[in-house]
Write a structure and sequence with these properties.
alpha/beta, 330 residues, binds 1,4-dihydronicotinamide adenine dinucleotide, Rossmann fold
Length: 330
């Protein structure tokens, strides 16, 4: 079956071609993101494949439906960028890859925490410049501190257990308690308790209308002074302006981001020879205690191979009219 992959990067082409050796689908790789003006590049494909920043709203869904698209495959876990209800109303199926490697994201989250705490990017750049001094590189022991995990699903639970293994007390907020966390004596508390007691707060819940700016000025004001906030989930969970104010006042001591609320205009592109047209993002970059990676937490060899094989499995099921185990339903 023909699958048109939008926003296709070199690593997508490699992993999908490799996974397709046995599946033998017809893959069309399109460099451009999916938008109203690029939708036609899918030509007569019934199935398309998109990534985290391809925003699929109602008008775009209608265009896709008109040209015959009946399956949208998200090669990611989060699906906040697709109007699922509108897709369902049109009879377009939407599938995602819910658990291609929670380890990849959890490990990157730990990487951000440790790198921020121990000033590893700054230390590395000093050493590269022949400066072997350690003034200003003082960190803190994670052992004995308190971590707050917001969202203890697949990724959050791994982060919680890893931090506990480092000797941290781990608090968690989630309307659904995860037995893996309960078995490890991770303490479920209410949001205010988590905010007020945690030295490190890590976000692992999905971006939904209810979770928009979950961490806003009010939430930040309830946190410990000098708190570390890590967001590897979705940019919109954190109010950027409130984070900037918190960094300015010292309320936020460290900020680690793999996602940013207006990342669509920046991430996954080489803009090194262009002016960054986003004042808030430039402001974030100006703080020495902010570490930003370009939505790469998912990006491990295992994860991208799993994404490709799970996506092609969904495509094969769709072709054979078999149930879609990774379908997203509203
Ligand atoms: P999951 O669905 O297994 O777990 C999410 C958990 O968040 C659920 O237990 C849910 O009950 C909880 N939750 C929802 N709203 C909440 C709230 N307001 N407060 C507390 N808990 C809440 O999802 P998974 O696989 O752990 O992924 C988490 C998020 O990570 C995804 O939604 C996605 O946005 C992000 N992600 C980021 C990646 C990256 O490369 N940076 C890659 C993969 C996922």
């Amino acid at each position: 079956m023909k699958l048109a992959l939008f926003n296709a990067k070199r690593y997508d082409i490699e992993s999908f071609n490799q996974a397709n050796v046995s599946a033998a689908h017809e893959l069309i790789f399109i460099e451009q993101p999916l938008q109203l003006k690029t939708a036609r590049l899918a030509s007569d494909a019934i199935a398309i494949c998109i990534f985290v920043n391809d925003v699929v709203d109602s008008p775009l869904l209608e265009q896709l439906f008109k040209q015959g698209v009946r399956l949208i495959c998200l090669r990611c876990a989060g699906y906040n960028n697709v109007d699922i209800a509108a897709a369902q109303a049109l009879g377009i199926h939407v599938v995602h890859v819910p658990a291609y490697s929670p380890y990849a994201v959890a490990e990157h989250t730990l990487g951000l925490m440790l790198a921020l705490n121990r000033h590893i990017p700054e230390a590395n750049s000093r050493v590269h410049n022949g400066n072997f001094t350690i003034n200003g590189l003082k960190g803190f022991d994670m052992h004995g501190k308190t971590a707050g995990i917001i969202g203890t699903g697949r990724i959050g639970a791994l982060v919680a257990c890893s931090l506990q293994a480092l000797g941290m007390r781990v608090l968690a907020v989630d309307p659904i308690q995860n037995s893996a966390c309960c078995n490890q004596s991770i303490e479920y508390v209410d949001m205010d308790t988590l905010l007020s007691l945690s030295d490190v707060i890590s976000l692992h819940c999905p971006y939904t209308a209810e979770n928009c700016h979950l961490i806003n000025a009010e939430a930040i004001s309830k946190m410990k002074k000098g708190v570390m906030i890590i967001n590897t989930s979705r940019g919109g969970l954190l109010d950027t302006q409130a984070a900037i104010d918190g960094l300015r006042s010292g309320q936020i001591g460290y900020l680690g981001l793999d996602v940013y609320e207006r990342e669509q205009n920046l991430f996954f592109q080489d803009l090194s020879d262009k002016e960054i047209d986003d004042a808030d993002f430039k402001m974030l970059l100006s703080f020495p205690n902010v570490l930003i990676t370009p939505h790469q937490a998912f990006f491990t060899a295992e994860a991208i191979n799993n994404i490709a094989s799970a996506t092609l499995f969904s495509l094969s099921c769709f072709e054979k009219n078999e149930p879609l185990s990774n379908a997203i339903l509203k």
